[in-house]
Amino acid sequence: MLVDCGLSCRELKRRAASVDVDVSCLDGIVITHSHDDHIAGIKTFHKCFPDVPIFANIMTSETIAWHERIDEDAFVHFENGQQFEIGPFEVMPFSIPHDTSDPVGYVIRAEGVVYFHGTDIGTPLDSVGVHLAEADVATLESNHDPVMLRQSGRPPSLIQRIAGPRGHLSNDQSCELVRRFASPRLKRIALAHLSEECNAPHIAERAMRETLSSIGREDVSLAVLGQNSPFEIS
To answer: Do 74 and 6 belong together in one domain?
Structure first.
């Protein structure tokens, strides 16, 4: 199963092949939200692999269908908070705060393992944290360092959007979620969606390692994901 489709179809196939995944054999794609960096490759992918279903809630599918000129019949709809199945996966979509139409994160269960996927989250809400508490493995946004963001030279309106309640999680906010909601079952965390201009992998990693140490969870495996290559976190 694939979460989002922001790469070109060619690049997706290349990266998938590098980790021995055949994208034509996917049971489905689940979409978190309609921003371009998460759905830019979906139109071409659907043309190449029309038998792979695309799962999204109604508001997200309508936005993508209009923006990408995809027939809305290509989508399988779900309701936030209602579990559904894709092949061997049990998928629970949950609402998150972000500046687009009805964005979601996912809790995905398969073969006794629970995976949490949460990026593009403006505020570390308890309603997000309770899903993180279910996870054995988590991919969690750690988008920016507040000082680097302020000093980035970006327009004030963009800085305000990123740091706002419907923008992106800072390193400290990501750490706050883990500090409050990491359960004894959590074994692996992958930090994701790092800004290349307003964050640095070593800064995000240091903040999270200090957090894990403070709650006595040095046993949790930690990875920092990059934008340019695949990484196995399972």
So the answer is: yes
What digits encode the pLDDT tens for the residues 20-71? Answer: 999 999 999 999 999 999 999 999 999 999 999 999 999 999 999 999 999 9
The Cα–Cα gap between 29 and 87 comes to 11
Task: Please give the tally of structural domains in the chain.
Answer: 2
User: 173-212, pLDDT tens digit by residue?
Assistant: 999 999 999 999 999 999 999 999 999 999 999 999 999 9
Residues 68 and 178 in one domain: no
**What is the residue range of 38's domain?**
1-78
Q: For residue 60, which of 95, 22, 18, 110 has the smallest C-alpha distance?
A: 95
Residue type at 31 in one-letter notation: I
Output the six-digit token pair for 220: 């949790």
Domain boundary among 62, 78, 94: 78
